[in-house]
């Protein structure tokens, strides 16, 4: 079984798989009526590297992909899925059929056929097996068929999927020219979206030009000329610098985390849009060779941490403690509450657990066992911002207080670390998913580097509960998915910490967002 994940983080938005529920309300800061500029100047925090939309599921990579590529469905924030390439669809737990719109065209003018959609899935299954979408948007064992005359694509899976249409409906679709030479997708775009890549300077700027023939995915009442002619995307790692550039006019659209929002909120000329829930969670490396491969050690870690202190720190006091792995605003299994299953802060019991597991306190306060220190390495995204760094440092302090030798190992390439089976024990990250079924893809299957199970989770009780939930369709499956998530929390596979909300700021216009918090390029509106 090979399941994988989408990365959506505070610094990367995961997975795509990456995938967080978010609000899309527009906040009125008193800005006067404006216009959508000819050129939108936006910034991302990390250079996305290779632009292949199938193999790059980083948050910034997915945002750029959204300009040029489309999927069968669109997942707007706090709303039901809508047709993107597809005009209609029907699904059970084992079969989903999509009928394509009549006017979907590639940027090179080629009409998109149903067999082209199938070809993208075939590419993942045969040539891009390491894609983070394989096992999530491309379910294990899926059979895809296409009928060009009827314009239909049908997906059949051997194992029931609660949200089959929503999952296969999110894979970016690549046009024939891109699949003919997949290496070209690293530096060029081959999609059906409203923009195509015009130029790229790695680590500096990516420029997208409008495809004036585009019309299939435009919202009702919107003309292609209502959208900016050009989107310039600069790589600016520091959000404080992005805020300065917004003020100077070097940028006219920014996405800011909680610690950088006060300055923009105080400026009445900017229109703000909620850009997505940023749920921060603590993940455990359960490889039996790591200290955290022991349930007792994981429980001790969870009980040593005080979420009521770490949560406000990691969100700059603007967030809320999480009650579930599903982010706020999720349109699937809303109102899930697993608070009772989340480990409670109890330092004395944490010490007792470690004592019973054979980890004895040394003269320096650090525990040892069989001559080895109880060292745990805390990995996090180094570009996440000062508030995340402060939260990680607090976790380190709390763990050291019960005898751990907690070492912080920040990295701007932390996904490479976890997917390569690298050196880490604890990960504090905004990795998230929009459905509980997607969490199943994250926490199961073959372990890295051959598979996507980077937590090395082998909890058979969870697998059984998840299989039972997956056999039910849609919202009927939610009670059993809640039980499966409860088992994840009891097994201390993950500890949900807290979530805050990013915001987009623009002068004279606004944007709409999808469930991951990325802005949708067809939603520019004067404000």
TrEMBL record:
InterPro entries (alphabetical): Peptide/Ni-bd (IPR030678), SBP_5 (IPR039424), SBP_5_dom (IPR000914)
Q: Which residues form the Solute-binding protein family domain?
A: 81-437
Q: Which UniProt keywords apply?
A: Signal, Transport
Gene Ontology terms, MF aspect:
peptide transmembrane transporter activity
Q: Which domain of life is it from?
A: Bacteria
The record's annotation in SUPFAM superfamilies points to: Periplasmic binding protein-like II (SSF53850)
Q: Which GO terms describe its cellular component?
A: ATP-binding cassette (ABC) transporter complex; periplasmic space
Would you indicate the residue range of the signal peptide?
Answer: 1-20
Supply the Gene3D superfamilies for this chain.
Dipeptide-binding Protein, Domain 3, Periplasmic binding protein-like II
KW Transmembrane helix (keyword) present: no
Q: Is Signal tagged as a keyword?
A: yes
Which terms under GO biological process does the entry name? Answer: peptide transport
Family stated for the protein in its record? Belongs to the bacterial solute-binding protein 5 family.
Q: Which protein are we looking at?
A: ABC transporter substrate-binding protein
Q: Which organism is it from?
A: Bifidobacterium jacchi
